[in-house]
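TASK: fixed-backbone design
INPUT:
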């Protein structure tokens, strides 16, 4: 009888502990992926672009988040730059306003140094976009980059353009003044 009572108490405690501790502390990776997916979906609809990748840099806390998109149309460099910063602004706004991700961020608020957006640009059916048109546009921690594909060797870039965030933002401001929406 004592053995049965001990077994019942043991299983009762085991059941109670599973119920009491079943609320799981949110996993930073899951929270980050949810944020990336929601933002990618929003930006995809807004700009008619397709999410094709993401990145998370973290040890114990989230340090950096990135979303990559495929764009199936030629994109002038000024328009690409402005769109990069529109996407970055939206991404930062969503991250910094979401209470569920805040405890997992290494830096709060997240800034330009904590997020990245990449555009891979081609024509319909993945037809290459060749120099002088850009085929890659990227804004990341170290600046803004644009690449053109070499028409003679599709595995090489012909031109690589690098801008600091400050230079790029000044050009975006000028572009927006000349092209009000």
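OUTPUT:
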């Amino acid at each position: 009888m004592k053995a049965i009572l001990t077994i019942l108490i043991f299983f009762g405690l085991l059941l109670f502990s599973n119920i009491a501790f079943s609320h799981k502390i949110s996993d930073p990776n899951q929270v980050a992926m949810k944020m990336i997916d929601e933002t990618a979906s929003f930006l995809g609809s807004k700009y008619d672009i397709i999410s094709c990748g993401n990145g998370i840099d973290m040890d114990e806390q989230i340090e950096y988040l990135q979303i990559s998109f495929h764009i199936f149309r030629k994109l002038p460099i000024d328009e690409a730059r402005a769109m990069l910063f529109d996407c970055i602004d939206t991404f930062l706004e969503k991250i910094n306003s979401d209470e569920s991700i805040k405890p997992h961020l290494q830096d709060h608020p997240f800034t330009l140094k904590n997020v990245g957006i990449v555009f891979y640009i081609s024509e319909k059916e993945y037809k290459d976009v060749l120099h002088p048109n850009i085929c890659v546009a990227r804004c990341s921690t170290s600046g803004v980059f644009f690449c053109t594909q070499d028409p003679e060797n599709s595995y090489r870039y012909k031109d690589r353009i690098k801008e600091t965030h400050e230079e790029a933002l000044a050009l975006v401001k000028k572009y927006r003044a000349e092209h009000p929406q």
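COMMENT: The beta strands are 50-58, 62-72, 115-122, 134-140, 143-149, 157-163.
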